[in-house]
Amino acid sequence: MRFSSWFNRYFQTSAGKKVAGLTRSLWRRLELELLEKRELLNATNDHFIAQAYRDLLGREAESSGLAYWNARLDQGGSREQIALGFTRSQEYESTLVRGLYNTYLHRTGEQQGVDYWIRVLDSDRTLDQIAASFLGSAEY
After folding, report:
1. Residue 53 CB-half CA count within 13 A
2. Contact partners, residue 56, CB within 8 Å, separation at least 6
3. Residue 29 backbone class (left: φ over 0; alpha: ψ -120 to 50; beta: rest)
4. I need a labelling partner for 120 at 20 to 30 A (CA). Which of 16, 42, 113, 135 fits?
């Protein structure tokens, strides 16, 4: 089950309303907790990195990416730092924004629009605020 599917199901109130005020940092912490559970299972670094690619970026890791993140771990970086590196990437933010397009507008986001919403996300607006903008749009 993808993290976002689990998250959306988990954070429903009995009235069926999503919990408001979800910040990007809270979203990241929850995803990190999911990855930390895998660390407790003593997964190899390759497995940990490959799973982070699947869970956070929705794709398989390429060999250069595996080598890069393994080198960071070999230099003393923690798995939490590696996960933060993923969640602070433009690719990860793009995945979040594209998910909003798919969920609320039922279409693929055009690159110019995705880039705009990534800039908005980077300006410390929450994912909930951006989702509200999608929901309040004429296209919705």
Report:
1. 17
2. 3, 31, 83, 86, 87, 92, 95
3. alpha
4. 16
Which tens digits make up the pLDDT trace of 57-67? 999 999 999 99
pLDDT at 76 over 80: yes
Cα-only R_g, the chain: 16
138: exposed, middle or buried (C-beta count within 10 Å: 0-12, 13-18, 19+)? exposed
pTM to 2 decimals?
0.65
Contacts of 18 (CB under 8 A, 6+ apart): 8, 11, 12
